């Protein structure tokens, strides 16, 4: 989603190739384009592949400078944006979601609550980051979507799905994260984003398939 949002911001036309939904299926194009990690996303530009979502977004911002800037012009603000984008990946993708998967598959209320608390902590931290970085404006990037918006906003669909999967847990809360609640609405409605974010219902259905596959694999072991 991140590269697609960035390309939409820059008004760059592109061809989107969706990898097969089967959990273990990887196309030959993907394996050739990203032989190290063997995962999406990959941007192929002028026949050359660029891998890793945040790196691709930075590449798009540099290669198409005529569109709205995604990263701040100021060096310090750029560093701050990269810090928070890295925080999102470290805490949500690399830490919270794996623990959440373990909690859901274990079907233990204690583990579910622990995973929910970890995600809540990250979301509350991002509320503080929004206050600091946005300086009272709608987006982390100010008046328009920027680097941190894309990094964190790409997780919105999953955060909404998680709220349902964990039995109505509130991650985006009017009391604890009022800024993020408003930000999420504006981000999701932006023309560069609204056709890219997946539907919550589809993510929930995919999660059920994933959980069933993980449980089946664990039973075989």
Write the layout of secondary structure elements.
Blueprint lengths: L1 H8 L18 H6 L8 E4 L2 E4 L1 H11 L11 H32 L2 H26 L12 H7 L2 H10 L12 H12 L10 H21 L1
Antiparallel strand pairs: 1-2
Helix pairs in contact: 1-3, 4-5, 4-6, 7-9
Description:
It catalyses: RX + glutathione = an S-substituted glutathione + a halide anion + H(+). Keywords: Detoxification, Transferase. This is glutathione transferase. The structure is a single chain. The chain has 221 residues and is mostly helical. It has nine helices and two strands; from the N terminus they run ααββααααααα. A two-stranded antiparallel sheet has the order 1-2. Helix 1 runs parallel beside helix 3 and helix 4 packs parallel to helix 6. The mean pLDDT is 88.
Protein structure class:
mainly alpha
Number of helices: 9
Rg over CA atoms, rounded to whole Å, is: 18 Å
Q: Percent of residues in beta strands?
A: under 5%
Largest sheet: 2 strands, antiparallel
In short:
This protein is mainly α and 221 residues long. The chain is 60% helix and 4% strand.
Keywords:
single chain, 221 residues, mainly alpha, 9 helices, 2 strands, glutathione transferase, detoxification, transferase
